Amino acid sequence: MPRPSLKDQRSGEILEAYLTCVARFGLEGATQERIASEAGVKRPLLRHYLGNKDQMIPALAAYVVDGFATSTHAIESALADAEMPSDIVDILFSKDSTSDPRLMLAWQALTASAAEYPDMRAPLLGSLSRFLEVISKALSRTAPAAGAGRVRAVAQGIAAPLVNLDAMSPLNPPAEWREDAVSAAKILAASLETAK
């Protein structure tokens, strides 16, 4: 397998820095100066590797969507071991989860600019749809008597606090908020376990 090119490596490093800056400062606050500083490169190299600002934003969106795809695939693999809907909650909310809150923060920032960059809408929406689909399939498999509409509603209800926890990570919310989110998700999961 060939080694990645320097351009691919450097572009990846810059995109990681961009992701970090957007998570910290929002899309508008992620200036080229901040990105270059975070990446440890001179500002002109940003343009060389990723183009101008109008080219950088779609590149970040593709990077975030790819990151979500990787994360969703790992979740899908982990959920294969779930035997009950409550197991799904335990897996999704595991403290050992390798979830990167920067992805959700950047996803939200990019979503907020979808009106300016309409080509991002479908991939961003698709990444969330795929995540919900993975949860729904696992719930359907572990609660076969539950109807499809109910499974989709529970999947939404379980995903919302999970996504919300990542979105709130910069606030460093109290630990009981996480505990309450897990409890709410377990209540929803339990509703499928009793479905006839």
Defining traits:
single chain, 196 residues, mainly alpha
Description:
The structure is a single chain. The chain has 196 residues and is mainly α. Helices cover 76% and strands 0% of the residues. The protein has nine helices and no strands. Helix 1 crosses helix 2, helix 5 (85-92) runs antiparallel to helix 9 and helix 8 (148-167) packs antiparallel against helix 9. The longest helix has 27 residues, at 53-79. The termini are far apart. The mean pLDDT is 92.
Question: SSE layout and pairings?
Answer:
Elements: H1 6-29, H2 32-39, H3 43-50, H4 53-79, H5 85-92, H6 101-112, H7 121-142, H8 148-167, H9 175-193
Coarse morphology: elongated
**Biggest beta-sheet profile:** none
Q: Averaging pLDDT over every residue, what do you get?
A: 92
Order of helices and strands: HHHHHHHHH
Number of helices: 9
Q: Total strand count, please?
A: 0
Query: Which structural class fits the helix and strand makeup?
Result: mainly alpha
User: Unreliable runs, pLDDT <50, ≥5 residues?
Assistant: none
- CA radius of gyration is 19 Å
Report the portion of residues in β strands.
under 5%
State the distance separating the first and last CA atoms. 52 Å
Helical residue percent? Answer: over 70%
Q: In summary, what is this structure?
A:
The chain is 76% helix and 0% strand. It has 196 residues and is mainly α.
